[in-house]
Amino acid sequence: MNSKYINPVLVTFIIFLSACSTINVVNINNAGDIEIKDNGVIYALPKTGIRVEVEATKLEIKAGEFAQYAEKYLGLTDVLLKDSAMWYISNINITEFAEPDAEHYYYVESSKSHSPTLINLTEQGLIRSINTTGNYKQNSSEHSFYSNESIPANTNASFIMDGQMVKTDTSYRTIRTDSTSRRIPVYKKRLIEKSTEEKAKEIAKYIIELQDEKMSLLIGDVEEFPDGIATTKIIDEFNKISEEYLPLFTGTKSSKTVKAVFEITPDVNSALNNVLFYFSPDKGILNNPDNGADPVSITFKDKQNTQFLDSFFVHKDTLVNKPNGLFYRIPGNATAEITYDNKVLASKIIRIAQFGKIDVLPAKYIQNRHVAIEFDPNTGALKSISRK
Description:
This protein is α+β, with helices and mostly antiparallel strands. It has helices at 70-74, 196-219, 228-245, 247-250, 309-319, 363-367; strands spanning 11-16, 23-27, 40-62, 84-110, 116-121, 127-130, 143-147, 164-176, 181-193, 252-264, 274-280, 284-286, 294-302, 325-340, 343-362, 371-376, 381-387.
């Protein structure tokens, strides 16, 4: 065998056919009832599998230390007062892949040795071409349908603040003289811890002062106005400091993302509501049902675009007693819908090999080594018949 016919996704077989020879193509599942006399080649038709890649994001919100004083000292409303965490589905990708259909393996048997015919298969044994290598591209279709922008993780605000204050206690001592007595104040200073509200008030005051200074700089209400570059740097520093302090009132947000992959082979007889996984806003992606978790399902809605061929095939069967040649697919179309909580998260129209029909390419095309035939290995469809 010439090495130029071999590549990582291609296997080439040579069978010998001539115009006066005959071939016999049988389904492997029926081979036990048929006498096989000569060597040949086994090929498979594909069936379509669906791969669903899911991203789930956990959003965690940590309440600010001074959240309860946000409205009082900064006028901020709708501030979260306690920690919370929630999962949501942030992205879904749907891709198709081909795999051999166990119900459609075929044996190609030749009864006479003459001019060679090349049968090219993929590494999975799927029919690819006759008498040509063609251009094989593995199905890599990928689409993103549902996407929520992830919220970047924020670090907790860092700040420097004196958590203590000086308190002066005043007491009196009475001094007696011969004729009078006097009360003399005695002052004693001690450090005490500031209350939470006092800390909040102090930081809020600082934030407001920063905003006032920033505004004064922007409108030019300063004694010495810095040049353009200096102004930009000062404003950036004001913004940086404010972003460090504001989370003490507004809280911080952080997120993490996990990915999971699910595969399913569509079946025309059970195409509705196939459960891929379960999802809970509290626990994220789950393989099994749990309290508060609802199923995420995929449904395949057959468009029945090949249904009109049924009457033709019935008529054809009355004209041809025993069709002989290579079997190939005419794939069907379907809409894949992924749903959760009665909402459609993703939708895509795809070609599904097993939702279509199977026909036979007459043997006379295969026996002519000057004819090149190409199939789509992803769907088993006939792509082209041309003269070399």
